[in-house]
Amino acid sequence: MPLRAFIFLILAACASRAAVLPGIIGTWKFQSRAPLEIQTNRALWDELGLQESEQGVYKKGAAEARVEAWRVADATAAMEAFDFVLPADAKPAPSLSALSPYAALTGGGLLIASGNYLVAIHGFVPEAEEAADMFRRMPRYEGSSLPSLPNYLPDREVPNSERFVGGPEALKLFFPGVEPSQAGFRFGAEASVADYPGGLRLALFSYPLPMIARERAEQFSKIPNAVVKRTGPLVAVVLHPSDTNAAETLLAKVRYQATITTGQPPKSRKDNAANLLLNIFYLIGILIALCLASGLMFGLIRLFVVRSRTTGAEEEILTLHLEGR
Q1: How far apart are CA 249 and CA 231, in angstroms?
Q2: 23 CB-near residues (< 8 Å, 6+ apart)
Q3: Quick one: CA torsion of 124, 125, 131, 135, rounded to 10 degrees?
Q4: Rounded to an integer, what distance in angstroms lies between the CA atom of residue 158 and that of residue 90?
Q5: What backbone phi and psi angles, to 5 degrees, belong to 149?
Q6: Whole-angstrom distance between the N-terminal and C-terminal Cα of the chain?
Q7: Which of 40, 63, 75, 307 has its CB 3.0 to 4.6 Å from that of 144, i.e. a possible disulfide?
Q8: Which of 197, 183, 190, 185 lies closest to 154 in space, CA to CA?
């Protein structure tokens, strides 16, 4: 193997195992790192497209903290991982809401998802700018838009019970009463699951088209003791409710409202036809004024040249002598 190719392979191998955690997080300095092994639910992490995970130790004076990081397929997978790892006693982190809607305080630490990364910090909570700088320093960071499906869940769910379901493995864990074939992940289905008072667990499935949702709703209705509602491309399901009336009341709160987004910028005055004609007349007037001004200037210069000549000197005229041609 040529030396250049060998060096390229070595560099590529090193790059593929590049460090995930940055050298500093605010005033905390990195000390050591180690692989973060996945001990449980490996199939779920594979479904999330786990690419690399790492844990490290940071120090600030005599204080020591531990940081864990997971890089997954995309921002949606990071959101799903956040829901999966989120402790039941976690609290909101309003100071970090501008950076990520998925940030929670975890008893002296922080759990936050941004882009295709999920990070758990044990021992301190960084400021918003420090956390943003941390994500900027992470390799292969990819930001993208998040699904709007969780926004359609009714309010007043049990705190920290929300789970995003992007595939069969997550469905088995968080809503096992529905088979993956019934959910129809092959159609591009996604789901959000949350618990509600009265022992109710609601699963809200989203599909690309209302027609698919209608067909899936028929399949869900075949499940014994299932309460089902379809609204637009969404299908809400509650399984085995102890109180059917409470389940119906909960499903009544699920409403889909279509929104249309276009890539065209807002219209301005230049898009008005009357303004366009008026601007054309303005341009014509400016051109006429320029022509008159340039003609007048040329005439004045000509007059000045003629008067500045010696008395009796005639102006030389060029002739082409075309009479005999």
Answers
A1: 15
A2: 29, 30, 137
A3: 50
A4: 12
A5: -55, -45
A6: 83
A7: 75
A8: 197
The overall longest dimension of the chain from CA atoms, in Å, is 120
Model pLDDT for residues 160-203, shown as the tens digit of each residue: 999 999 999 999 999 999 999 999 999 999 999 999 999 999 99
Q: Burial letters for 97-121: b for 16+ Cβ neighbours within 10 Å, e otherwise? A: eebbebbbbbeebbbbbbbbbbbbb
Single-letter amino acid, residue 178: V
Distance, CA of 256 to CA of 234 (rounded, Å): 7
pTM of the model: 0.72
Rounded to whole angstroms, the Cα distance separating 231 from 254 reads: 8
CB 69 within 8 A of CB 138: yes
Q: Which residues contact 233 (CB under 8 A, 6 or more apart)?
A: 206, 207, 208, 209, 210, 212, 213, 256
Question: Residue 21 corresponds to which tokens in the numbers above?
Answer: 């955690």
Tokens, residue 20: 């995930």
Q: Return the bridge partners of 234, or none.
A: 206, 231
